[in-house]
């Protein structure tokens, strides 16, 4: 069932690993690569960051209540703008009326039906 | 099923536009594929909330090349985009799952669901219409009653077949989180719907009430450690269902033992070697699909890299593990960065439970013969689907010298995902959804 793996990346651990652990080395090497790119990545492996993101999936739209609350909170500062990437919604950024994505129409016959 | 059968899939019928990924065609992405109980009907749901149903042609001797081909039978808009005003969130119209009801009369019924609402659709044929009404003309204009001098009995005349779909029940407002599964019970009266944290039991006739049977929401959401990823009723025992989790576990519940099934009857988990644990371990162990075998004796789970078959009588570990694309283990870093590591692949059994099928990337899909322990990789693409030629097995080269006809891991197209496949309940006919195209392959041997 487990296949002999061709090693893509030379292991960071030295070759004390036995034959049966060969399949695990790529995963650990990948983990090291990821941590090198994103050192601030959470200590908790996998964990609840993904779960919370999953539970909240869905396009957030402009909400006048949120917008006015945010404006009131930052009455002295400028409201954070959308920036070059209009689809990125992070932190306190509340979508403004200007950067609403165009709502597509889906009331068209499926191409599968010819 | 023998190896020979697996290698001789041919006769593709391909539905869908040839266009690539673009804003216009995003709604065309197929999100679910399901045969009905007889296999004569095949339903697909897409991101745009539409359902398309295909019907198998009756084989007849005068057209031997028709070979039971599938043609479009009906199409309708099942769900439309909605808006949750309280949270300012859009509710996608994407059809997450379709499940057929067993046929009880001339009409066909199916359940289709998006993230929040399940609908029961009736699909019926009309091939006659009445003519000779007394009070109105053939074009529908009302006749002047004073000019009617004789009564006639309307007669039924044949007309061109019309297939109508109408929503018979709407099961709404029962899920706070996103529905990932629906499953019709073997009692043919009830069904379950599962979201990330809860599972509800419905009666097909009752839309204003559902019964919560599983609730894993913690009192404090900060303590959330796992979510429900899939759920299914046992094919024969109407009191038994299973649900899988994002931690790679499966719980089997018995509705006879208690009303609220938070405590499982059986708990299936493969022991993990703690020394092999990495950042990715939990993510790739998350089960994206769980399916009972037709026999009801086994169940199959799909995680990111493998398909596992479990004997319901053994909770300690699976009885079979099939590697789908183990070569991706050394690509997990980039697969995490491009979110592919979160792709949810489904899996399915053939009619006799002797073979299983699941999708992969680059429009590849994999079949495993459980008896002979052989497996094959096939491709669903227009280039490789010539009408009479068998599908050629594909091979991914994992390193070193690449042979002719092999494709290297780095050349795989991760945007071409096959997440949804279906197998005819009795025959060797398979349906494979490749983004916005549907491929139906038949076994050449027939």
Describe this structure in words.
The complex is a heterodimer of chains A (114) and B (446). Chain A is an all-alpha fold. Chain A is flat and about 50 Å long. Chain A is built from three helices and no strands. Helices cover 4% and strands 42% of the residues of chain B. Chain B has 446 residues and is mainly beta. Chain B has a four-stranded antiparallel β-sheet. A four-stranded antiparallel β-sheet of chain B has the order 2-3-4-5, with no helix packed on it. In chain B, strands 8-9-10-11 form a four-stranded antiparallel β-sheet, with no helix packed on it. In chain B, a hairpin with a 5-residue loop joins β2 (30-35) and β3 (41-46). The two termini of chain B are 13 Å apart. Residues 1-6 of chain B have low confidence and may be disordered. Chain B is built from three helices and 32 strands. Chain B has a single domain, classed as YVTN repeat-like/Quinoprotein amine dehydrogenase (Methylamine Dehydrogenase, Chain H, 7 Propeller), CATH 2.130.10. The chains are: A mainly alpha (114), B mainly beta (446).
- From the 3D structure, determine the CATH topology of chain B: Methylamine Dehydrogenase, Chain H
Biggest interface, chains and residues, is: A-B, 50 and 65 residues
Low-pLDDT residue intervals, each spanning 5 or more residues of chain B: 1-6
Distance between the amino and carboxyl termini of chain A: 44 Å
The fraction of residues in strands of chain B falls at 35-45%
Quaternary state of the chains: heterodimer
Shape of chain A: flat
Largest sheet of chain B: 4 strands, antiparallel
- Residue-averaged pLDDT of chain A: 61
Gyration radius from CA atoms of chain A, angstroms: 23 Å
Task: Report how far the terminal alpha carbons of chain B are from each other.
Answer: 13 Å
| Whole-number tally of structural domains of chain B | 1
Number of helices of chain A: 3
Which word captures the global form of chain B? globular
Number of strands of chain A: 0
